[in-house]
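Per reviewer request, we include the raw input and output of the structure prediction for the construct analysed in the revised manuscript.
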Amino acid sequence: MSTISAVILAGGKARRMEGRDKGLQVLYGKPLIEYMIERLRPQITNISINANRNQAAYAKFGFPVFADELADFQGPLSGMLSGLEKAKADFVLFTPCDSPFFPKNLLEKLKSALENDRTLIAYACDEEREHPTFCLMSVELKKALRTYLASGERRLLQFMRENKGIPVKFTTNEGRFTNVNSLEDLR
């Protein structure tokens, strides 16, 4: 495998968070985005943040910040397309902004799966379900993703399955993919 960069997806509307920007919400004294950065930094140095609002607040964390190319908050795949388009690497590791306890070996396991299975997408799963916003994706898929989004589709797992994406299982001992979706979750 060649080069890899990372993108933290913080571009959503956060409807279940009463419209508050999820990545900037505070959990135990720190914004959620800070937890994500702290977990990613030992795994990869080339990190950027996809945010459609509050870009100045995200820029304070010291990483490049960019918005979706597509208008109207079209979901995580829109942020992923923008990340693939901006990447100067061969692969992009994507994470959401609201899952502060994800595995510290995320990149290592996803990268190993891609190399072993010779596919262009690997995404995380645990004992309970799939977590496709945690994925390692080749920039070779940007044309396919652009076409998929242009067709009106937004389903993340469907895109990954159509492009031979493989799930990579993580145990709860490695980390948890629990995400903070609401103000109640923060409490």
